[in-house]
Structures are given as structure tokens and as C-alpha cells.
């Protein structure tokens, strides 16, 4: 008579045999239970069957004519979108420069509203000056205290020591608390502001930037109709000294939440070794045209909360550019990240100048040879590579 132990051993042997039989006879079962599949933290919990095969980056296909404003026609529809400008009263001159160009090159024709945000109330002089620049609606918003200032739970002596060390090593903005406040706000709070709740898309514009080209199509409608989530013009590596532990925090999050990562993500833009390390490439977030629902979604919400809990915005100097870039690359489908090759743009000291035929079509006021895209520090080649 068989003992209880022998019954257990026999049952276990039968289960193992069934596993191997199913693994070889049923492809789906074998794929789902493979050690390779279970070990891929950045796979999003799904196989590559959803991934589209690309032969060139999507931006190589011109924006369809239907998005362009035709001569002698009126605008029949707009996206639910706004231009968002984070500014202080002292930024007025720079805001006037940026806004005047945006109105002349694009928004004077399309009439999208503006939302201005500040941690202090805007002055009457500021409001009068910017209101005179546009026929579009403008709203002025005050940033809630807890969305801007350093949280009470941050160990200030530890943060102060980090700032001092960065300042001594000439790290840009290394000693600045307000800069860190801004980075944290842009990373995890701007899209929560009450004035933005009614909008789906946004265009981030900063003081003292330049727009070189006439834009006769609606990038918001393009984003909406084509299912895009994030748009950029310049990409480059982040300063390593500002983010020494950021990628460790990212990998920790992905390991705990693999199902939140999109299976057809843009990890190849961020990492040259399948996620083991970060190559520091990011989209320069002083220019962004994006879908606010990307940041409002479960994946990015949990991602930001995880990063914020690490204190890296203050113990180091994590910027919103790498945080947004990593979030977009992991939680959106890779072709939902769009390179606006036809929007000429400069934020000191770098600029994107469209190449032909976009340069001529947009009557761009920039030297076609002065273009950061193919410089040694540009990350555009890595963006291109994920599609080829």
C-alpha cells in the first residue's frame, strides 16, 4: 500500500510531465510559462505579438494635408487643448517674446486658449501685457502650496548637503531649491491643476524661446486623431550628476509593476542594454505637446508617486525631462511618441531647424545647417533606431 508521501511524489511527477507535454504541444502555453518571458521586467507582461513592424520612424511620413489650414477657409474644429506657460511676474519680457512668436507663427490663426501658472499671484501689469498679445482666452492660475514647495518629509540637512556638493562641482542649478520645486511640479503636479482639468492636450511654452517656422496645421488635432501621446523637438542626454539613482528607482518600479509597462514601448530610446542601464537620453521638456491623460493614467500616477517617495528631486536633482521621457517611453506605445520635425524651435543653447522640404514649406527663419538633430550629443538617432 502506497504511503501518503509516495502519493504526493507521484502527483508531482504527473504535473511536471503535463507541463512539458503542454509546453511542446501548445505554443501559447509554452510562451506564457517560459522563464525568458517571466524574467523580462520591461516586457509589460505581454509578448511581442502586438508590436508593429516599422521600416522607418513615423515622422518620415508627412503630416496629412487634412490637418492644414486651407486658403480662404475657416477653422471648423479644434482639439480640447491649451497652451500652458509656467512663469513668474519677473519673466514678463521673456514671455512676451515667446508668446508673440507663437501667435505670429501658429496661434493667431488657430485661437487656442492659454493657461498661465505661478506659485505667486500674477500682477495686474503681467496680466495686461499678455492679454494684449492675443485674441484667445487666457486664464491665470495659482499653484497650490503643496504642489510647489519642498515637502516636510524631506530630510533638509541631507538635501542641503547634496545641494552644496553639486554647487561645489558646478552642476547647473545644483544649489537651487526653486529649480527643484519646478522640476517636481512639472513631473507630477502641473496636469492636476484645476484650470487644466477641462483640457485633454497641452503645449508647454517657456519664456525666451524662439519659434522659427510658420505652422499652418493643427498639431493638437494631429495628436488627437492619430492617437499620439507625446511630442518633442529636441532630445539629448541628461547630466549624469543630477540623476545617479534615478534608473535604480525606475527598475525597482518596473519590477514591482511589469503589467503597467506597454508591451510595444520605447525602452530602446532609454537604454542600450535592454534596460540594465540608462543611457540618459531624454526629450527636452521645455517643448512638449502632449496628452494630459498620459500623465493622469494609472501607470504614470503610480510611477511618479514611487519616484517622489525616493526624494530624488531634492536629494539629487531629478529633472522633469528625464522623468517625463521615461514615463512616456515606458507607458505609451513607441509610435505614440512623435518627433515634430517641422516645428522650428530654440531654447538656449540648442535649436531644432527643420530640414527640407519642411524648411521651405514653413518659411523657417533659421539656418538649415544650425540643427542639433545630428550633432554628437543628440539622441534622435536612438529614437530613429527603435523603428528600424
CATH fold assignment of the largest domain: Spore Coat Polysaccharide Biosynthesis Protein SpsA, Chain A
| CATH class annotation of the largest domain | Alpha Beta
Terminus-to-terminus distance = 64 Å
Beta-strand portion reads 5-15%
Task: Describe the global form.
Answer: globular
Low-confidence region ranges: 1-39
Helix/strand structural class: alpha/beta
Major beta-sheet overview: 7 strands, mixed
Q: What is the string of SSEs from the N terminus onward? A: HHHEHEHEHHHEEHEEHHEEHHHHEEEHH
The order of strands across the largest sheet is: 3-2-1-4-9-6-10
CATH architectural label of the largest domain: Alpha-Beta Complex
The fourth-level CATH homologous superfamily of the largest domain is Spore Coat Polysaccharide Biosynthesis Protein SpsA, Chain A
Radius of gyration computed on alpha carbons:
24 Å
What is the residue-averaged pLDDT? Answer: 89
What percentage of residues falls in helices of 4 or more residues?
40-55%
SS summary, helix count? 17
Overall tally of structural domains: 2
**What is the number of beta strands?**
12
Could you list some keywords that capture this structure?
single chain; 388 residues; alpha/beta; Spore Coat Polysaccharide Biosynthesis Protein SpsA, Chain A; seven-stranded mixed β-sheet; three-stranded antiparallel β-sheet; 17 helices; 11% strand; disordered N terminus
Amino acid at each position: 500500500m502506497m504511503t501518503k508521501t509516495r502519493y504526493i511524489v507521484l502527483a508531482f511527477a504527473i504535473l511536471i510531465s503535463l507541463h512539458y507535454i503542454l509546453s511542446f504541444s501548445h505554443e501559447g502555453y509554452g510562451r506564457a510559462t517560459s522563464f525568458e518571458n517571466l524574467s523580462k521586467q520591461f516586457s509589460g507582461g505581454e509578448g511581442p505579438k502586438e508590436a508593429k513592424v516599422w521600416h522607418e520612424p513615423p515622422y518620415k511620413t508627412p503630416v496629412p494635408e487634412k490637418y492644414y489650414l486651407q486658403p480662404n477657409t475657416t477653422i471648423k474644429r479644434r482639439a480640447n487643448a491649451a497652451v500652458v506657460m509656467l512663469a513668474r511676474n519677473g519673466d514678463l519680457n521673456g514671455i512676451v517674446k515667446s508668446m508673440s512668436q507663437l501667435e505670429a507663427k501658429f496661434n493667431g490663426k488657430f485661437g487656442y486658449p492659454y493657461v498661465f501658472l505661478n506659485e505667486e499671484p500674477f500682477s495686474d501689469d503681467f496680466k495686461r501685457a499678455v492679454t494684449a498679445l492675443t485674441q484667445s482666452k487666457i486664464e491665470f492660475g495659482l499653484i497650490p502650496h503643496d504642489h510647489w514647495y519642498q515637502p516636510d518629509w524631506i530630510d533638509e540637512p541631507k538635501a542641503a548637503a547634496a545641494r552644496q556638493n553639486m554647487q561645489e562641482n558646478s552642476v547647473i542649478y545644483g544649489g537651487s531649491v526653486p529649480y527643484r520645486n519646478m522640476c517636481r511640479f512639472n513631473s507630477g503636479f502641473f496636469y492636476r491643476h484645476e484650470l487644466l482639468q477641462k483640457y485633454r492636450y497641452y503645449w508647454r511654452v517657456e519664456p525666451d524661446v524662439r519659434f522659427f517656422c510658420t505652422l499652418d496645421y493643427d498639431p493638437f488635432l494631429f495628436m488627437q486623431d492619430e492617437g499620439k501621446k507625446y511630442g518633442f523637438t529636441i532630445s539629448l542626454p541628461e547630466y549624469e550628476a543630477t540623476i545617479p539613482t534615478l534608473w535604480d528607482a525606475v527598475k525597482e518600479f518596473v519590477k514591482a509593476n511589469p503589467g503597467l509597462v506597454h508591451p510595444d514601448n520605447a525602452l530602446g530610446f532609454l537604454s542600450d542594454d535592454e534596460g540594465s542601464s540608462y543611457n540618459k537620453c531624454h526629450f527636452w521638456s521645455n517643448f512638449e505637446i502632449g496628452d494630459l491623460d498620459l500623465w493622469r493614467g494609472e501607470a504614470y500616477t503610480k510611477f511618479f508617486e514611487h519616484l517622489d517617495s525616493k526624494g530624488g528631486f531634492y536629494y539629487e536633482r531629478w529633472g522633469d525631462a528625464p522623468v517625463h521621457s521615461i514615463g512616456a517611453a515606458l507607458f505609451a506605445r513607441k509610435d505614440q511618441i512623435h518627433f515634430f520635425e517641422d516645428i522650428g524651435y530654440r531654447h538656449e543653447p540648442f535649436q531644432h531647424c527643420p530640414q527640407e522640404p519642411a524648411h521651405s514649406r514653413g518659411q523657417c527663419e533659421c539656418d538649415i545647417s544650425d540643427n542639433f538633430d545630428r550633432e554628437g550629443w543628440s539622441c534622435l538617432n536612438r529614437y530613429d533606431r527603435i523603428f528600424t
